[in-house]
Design a protein that fits this description.
This protein is 33% helix and 16% strand. It starts with a strand and ends with a helix. It has two domains: 76 residues, Beta-grasp domain (Ubiquitin-like (UB roll)), CATH 3.10.20.30; 69 residues, Orthogonal Bundle (DNA polymerase, domain 1). By secondary structure, it is α+β, with helices and mostly antiparallel strands. Strands 2-1-5-3-4 form a five-stranded mixed beta sheet, sandwiched between helices.
Length: 157
Amino acid sequence: MKTKIELIVNGKIYAVEVEPTMTLLDLIRDKLELTGTKEGCGEGDCGACTVIMDGKAVNSCLVLAINAHGSEIVTIEGLGKGKELDPLQDAFIKHGAIQCGFCTPGMILTAKALLESNPNPSDGEIKLAISGNLCRCTGYVQIIEAVKDVAAMKEGK
């Protein structure tokens, strides 16, 4: 039996019918056709499916779509304005924190949620925040540097 839910994704209101077992990941990718959110492990271990839900980074593969009713979701497509990239996206490019790119959307959204709650995180806080996001290519150093760069920009350094 399908249930109608309403949610805001990237500033746009959606009213959709979902199956009780549909995940937020499947809703985002299949119904809303926002394919920047990636499916990796399907078990919440890799972070490829990370989105920001009500201000917090979550693994969308672990959230039932029905539980997102009334929530505000930000996907990688919701960052930036038009053709202008979000500062984190720019920093990831500048620091070479994007290689194969599969982890990038989830990693950027995790970092975005961190910087929203903690504008000047330490290296340890950055490492802890991204610990749920696996990256097989970069070794994480470039990712940490990109996040620190954006934090420094916000601080005016």
